[in-house]
């Protein structure tokens, strides 16, 4: 295995150190943020940074993209970029209340539908969900399938298949995939009434609880299943505030629940991706910092690249990314307002203006 280092870049046959002015020179210095057991692959330490957002302005050497894109390396770099930023944390009072009530409702559920954002399936996975569910039957639904590529969908489908987990893709806004969810819930929960009949009890509807992070599309999925607006839904976190059971015909009942998050998010790389995808409250993060990180990620992802960003915003082709890109966009279009520039970049990503873009792939 080759060594992987965050904030690192190898240029040709040697190690390169770059400072904030983008001057690069050979150096034997290496700063290992995340490394594997082998050091067979040369690495580089990007130095010359002070604290704060200047960590996000990397060398133009990062403009190149390897033929085989290394998602593991991007994750390592993301962990490095986020170290100097203000932590993203969001745990409003209604989430604490919901978590307690949800645990009590779990014993009533025959099937649990774990809804996640298809762009960041791991980052929208609650770290305690497995513990809460135990052996209860679960379906993982990757919502917003329209925002990721076929390659992304295939990669995640194979990943969950290897784990023996049922996974479906959906588009809660347009209703794609929702009927499959209903059929699978009915199939998985069918043995409930077989057992009840054996005990001499009357049949009852199969009960499915829909759980997940804020703004991943739980209420929209229920509304599409019911073909009417029974649950409040809006494209922002925190709209659903209480648990609500809704009936679906004679055979099924669904529990809509508010988004739940850990009390403390220890993985700040995941937290940044939640902010980028609008799956966490906007008061929890600095939009300029988050937009700068997004620019850095999109510049590295082969299906987007820095040229796509430059062409969209009619920026000069100087290879600048991160915080510098956001600042120049602010000057060019928003009279120097970094917040407005950041909002534009984040909004464009959330609306799919950069194409089909996932921000993570399955681990190796």
In words, what does this structure look like?
By secondary structure, the chain is an alpha/beta fold. 35% of the residues lie in helices and 13% in strands. The strands form 2 sheets. A 6-stranded mixed sheet has the order 6-5-4-7-9-8, with helices on both faces. A 3-stranded antiparallel sheet has the order 1-2-3, with no helix packed on it. Strand 2 and strand 3 form a beta hairpin. Helix 9 crosses helix 12 and helix 11 crosses helix 12. The termini are close together.
Fold blueprint:
Elements: E1 10-11, E2 14-18, E3 24-26, H1 71-81, H2 93-105, E4 111-117, H3 129-133, E5 137-143, H4 150-162, E6 166-170, H5 178-188, H6 191-198, E7 206-212, H7 218-226, E8 244-248, E9 252-256, H8 268-276, H9 287-300, H10 305-313, H11 322-333, H12 338-350
Q: What is the average per-residue confidence, as pLDDT, rounded to a whole number?
A: 79
The global form is elongated
Strand content: 5-15%
The number of distinct β-strands equals 9
Spatial strand sequence of the major β-sheet: 6-5-4-7-9-8
Regions with pLDDT < 50 over 5+ consecutive residues?
1-67, 231-239
Major sheet characteristics: 6 strands, mixed
How many DSSP H or I helices? 12
């Amino acid at each position: 295995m080759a060594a992987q280092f965050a904030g690192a870049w190898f240029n040709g046959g040697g190690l390169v150190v770059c400072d904030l002015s983008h001057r690069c020179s050979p150096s034997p210095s290496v700063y290992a943020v995340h490394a594997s057991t082998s050091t067979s692959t040369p690495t580089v330490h990007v130095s010359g940074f002070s604290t704060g957002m200047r960590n996000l302005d990397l060398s133009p050497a990062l403009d190149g993209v390897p033929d085989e894109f290394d998602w593991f390396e991007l994750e390592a770099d993301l962990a490095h970029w986020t170290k100097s930023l203000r932590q993203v944390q969001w745990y409003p009072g209604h989430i604490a209340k919901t978590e307690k009530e949800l645990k009590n409702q779990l014993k009533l559920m025959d099937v649990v539908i774990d809804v996640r954002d298809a762009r960041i399936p791991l980052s929208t996975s609650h770290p305690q969900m497995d513990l809460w569910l135990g052996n209860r039957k679960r379906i993982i639904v990757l919502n917003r399938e329209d925002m990721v590529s076929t390659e992304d969908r295939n990669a995640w489908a194979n990943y969950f298949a290897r784990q023996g987990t049922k996974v479906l893709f959906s588009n809660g806004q347009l209703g794609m995939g929702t009927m499959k969810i209903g059929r699978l819930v009915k199939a998985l929960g069918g043995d409930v009434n077989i057992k009840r009949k054996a005990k001499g009890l009357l049949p009852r509807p199969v009960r499915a609880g829909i759980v997940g992070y804020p703004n991943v599309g739980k209420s929209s999925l229920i509304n599409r299943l019911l073909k009417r607006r029974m649950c409040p839904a809006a494209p922002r976190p925190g709209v659903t505030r209480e648990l609500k059971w809704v009936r679906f015909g004679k055979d099924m009942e669904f529990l809509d629940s508010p988004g739940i998050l850990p009390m403390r998010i220890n993985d700040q790389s995941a937290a940044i991706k939640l902010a980028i995808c609008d799956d966490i409250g906007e008061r929890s993060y600095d939009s300029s910092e988050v937009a700068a990180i997004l620019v850095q990620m999109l510049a590295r992802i082969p299906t987007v690249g820095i040229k796509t960003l430059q062409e969209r915003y009619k920026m000069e082709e100087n290879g600048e990314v991160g915080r510098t890109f956001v600042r120049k966009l602010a000057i060019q279009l928003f009279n120097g307002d970094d917040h407005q520039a950041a909002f534009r970049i984040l909004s464009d990503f959330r609306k799919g203006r950069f194409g089909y873009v996932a921000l993570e792939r399955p681990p190796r």
